[in-house]
Amino acid sequence: RTVRFEDAVRALADQDHAVFVEVSAHPVLAMSIQDTAEDAAVTGSLRRDDGGLDRFLTSLGELWVHGVDVDWAQAFTGTNAHHTDLPTYAFQHRRYWLDVNPTAGAGTAAAGLSAAGHPMLGAVMDLPDTDGVVLTGRLSLRTHPWLADHAVDGVVLLPGTAFVELAVRAGDEVGCEVVEELVLQAPLTLPEQGGVRLRITVGEPGPDGRRTVGVYSCADSSAEATAESPGDAWTCHATGVLAREAVEAGADLVAWPPSGAVRVETDALYDDLTGAGYGYGPAFQGLRAAWRRGDEVFAEVEAVEEQRDEAARFGLHPALLDAALHAARLGGSLSDAQARLPFEWRDVSLHASGASVLRVRVAPAGAHAVSVTVADGTGQPVATVGSLLTRPVDREQLAAAQGVLHDSLFALQWTAATPVPEAAGAVRWAFVGESPIEGPAYPDFDAVAAGEAVPDLVVRRFVDSADTAGTTAGIVHTALREALELVQGWLAEERFASSRLVLVTSGAVAAGA
Question: To the nearest whole number, what is the mean pLDDT of the chain?
């Protein structure tokens, strides 16, 4: 017979029933009840794929805030839950508000800057004496964790696509719609701790409206760093030219997959990239499918779920564009086994922003170079790259770039001593300072060097602080200065090359059990 569900709900509502609970594995009637009894509170008990105790207690909470009496003592039995006093009102006896300096943490406006409105940049600053602009930001693996998924030979690098994204954003600030040229000069490595400060400088326009652009970084190991110390060293990573003339969109990618294209297997792509020295984590493994038509490669690229919302804040998310370039490894121009990095970008133009799904066409544009056409999931233009030239990874440059960030952080490491083989006859030694055993002692190293014989061992003993007058800091400073002078003097004597310098401490930190 007719169920008459609506009539039943209306009858209950007319009897002042204001709460409806659908007790089931998943609510399917709740919407119908809400449509019928508009002023009623409607909830379920459990939900599909969310059927545990947490979901049940959440449903209880929903009832509670609608005025239903819940026996919470029973609900929290065995959980050690206890009552907590709420603050008094209207805060007459105790203040709960924080006293904050109006300018502290007030953002870019308090510093006299404009917000950049970009995930990798914080502020924009106009230069008063020229028509130039400076954009600033700070990158770290804590603030931008997806960058950790881009590494070469185990070194985390800012991807070349990020430099293009920064240059495009800088061009937007001054009305230049195309990155006419961007040459990458040095890799930007990201440390495990701390971060790097960014500066993107845009010069004043020339007669033809073109402007220079540069991308610089400086090591910053402190998250609270706000000022540059005199010792800060800025590294230029990229220079280029911005122009006003927009580049026309490339090939039409509305018809998909393109006519005549043959599907290419991509299952082994990232294994092959790993073998070549690339270290791509999930954020950069966005290539989903690929096709080939002659020298052209077509690919579908999709942002991982965690980055889809963030992609809307970029012009073109660097991880997404980087994944699009992986399609070049499936063609003939960049398919060698050697690890290569972007070197020179030409005629890059952004037609639309915020895409999270891409259709890509990659075609040869010379030796070790490709042109790239990017569209969204419907085939509408997103970006055009006239030419991208790549170069093999320079391991020495990579190591040097990594050293720039890590030289300022030292750690103590114990190195096991190799036993010295016994030489024929007695080993000759000379003590600098007091000798604890029978043997020649000299007041300083100059006296040792003035002798005719070169001892096998030159020994300097540093006594325990308990045996020396003065503060601990003073004793340490004196010992370090004397050790430094001794090492410098010993190294300066070429005839001591076959000798060994031994520094002996007592009362220091044990090197072993």
Answer: 84
SS3 327: helix
Whether the per-residue pLDDT at 333 is higher than 80: the answer is no
**pLDDT reported for residue 223:** 40
Q: What does the alpha-carbon distance between residue 402 and residue 153 come to, in Å, rounded to a whole number?
A: 12
Distances in Å between the alpha carbon of 208 and those of 204, 241, 507? Answer: 11, 12, 72
Q: Determine the average pLDDT of the residues in 448-467.
A: 80
Bridge partners, 461 (sequence order): 504
DSSP alpha helices (H): ranges in 192-281? 269-275
Residue closest to 246 by CA, chosen among 279, 203, 214, 209: 209
**Cα separations in angstroms, 334 against 16, 252, 292, 402:** 73, 23, 14, 26
Neighbouring C-alpha atoms within 13 Å toward the C-beta of 92: 3
Distance, CA of 84 to CA of 69 (rounded, Å): 19
Burial class, 86, CB count within 10 angstroms (exposed 0-12 / middle 13-18 / buried 19+) = exposed
pLDDT at residue number 427? 57
- pTM confidence score: 0.59
Show the DSSP H helices in 393-458 as ranges: 395-406, 445-450
Element (DSSP H or E) covering residue 342? strand 340-350
